[in-house]
Every structure is written in C-alpha cells, then in structure tokens.
Write a structure and sequence with these properties.
Elements: H1 4-14, H2 37-44, H3 52-65, H4 67-70, H5 74-83, E1 105-107, E2 112-120, E3 126-135, E4 139-141
Antiparallel strand pairs: 1-4, 2-3
Helix pairs in contact: 2-3, 3-5
InterPro entries: cNMP-bd_dom (IPR000595), cNMP-bd_dom_sf (IPR018490), RmlC-like_jellyroll (IPR014710)
Protein name: Cyclic nucleotide-binding domain-containing protein
Domain Cyclic nucleotide-binding: 68-141
Amino acid sequence: MMTFSDIASSLAQDSQSDELNFQLSYYKAKKEMTLSPEAQEILRLHPFLRTKEMLHTAMVSLQTAVEAFSEFPTNMKQSLVKVGWYEKFNANQVIIRQGHNALNFYFIISGTTAVSVALKKPTGEPFNKTVAFLRKGESFGVSRFC
C-alpha cells in the first residue's frame, strides 16, 4: 500500500510541472457492496429449509448490497427472499433466449449482462446485435408478483 508521500512523489515525477497533482481516485472509497457469503448460502437452500432468521439475514444483506432492492415494499422483499434463490452465471452464458418463455424473474446483484437480439442482414445472414447492458440493481424476466 502506498503512503500519501509515495503517491505525491510519484505524481510529482510524472508531472511536467513542479505542482503537486491530487488524484481523487487514489483516495475514494470503493463502495461496491456484494451479497454476503452467508446470504448467498441461505438463498441456495431450498425455500422450505429457510428459517425466519435466515430470511431476515438474506433480506438485510440484499438491501445493503443492492440499493434498488431496498426500494421494494417490505412485503415484496419478504416474498422475494422466501422463494428466490442465488444463482451465478459464467461469462458468455446464455440466461434466456429470444423467443423463449421467461419462467423466472432475474435481479442482478453484481456484474453486467448484455441483451442481444437476433436479426438478419439484407442478405438473409443471421447476426446478433447487443441492444442494452443491464447492471447491478436492474432486473429482467417474468415477475410472478404482478
């Protein structure tokens, strides 16, 4: 870990002038919160095995990790942690294909997913076009709560 003096010396050497440059990014806290390992474990359990205490722990962790989750009404958050589960996807893994029925509602806890549509060139050759990127706090799929 670099000290302030180390950073200042490094910046002064890199700078064309004799002024001291201040880089806020060196000192800014990384506020990216993730779902706690305990909450991940709880949300991997079958819903019938989750106790009230476990549900509370998972809900608090989700509220802390994902600001958008905390904006849901309390009864909806409780319903989500009762029946929802934690699932992790690999890079480039297809979650749902265009034209298939969505059977689940996905809430992005961390990472990014690309939304692509299958199109055809004027020649008839198929290609995929990325139309959006969904990030932490966003969701997609079918909601059974509607």
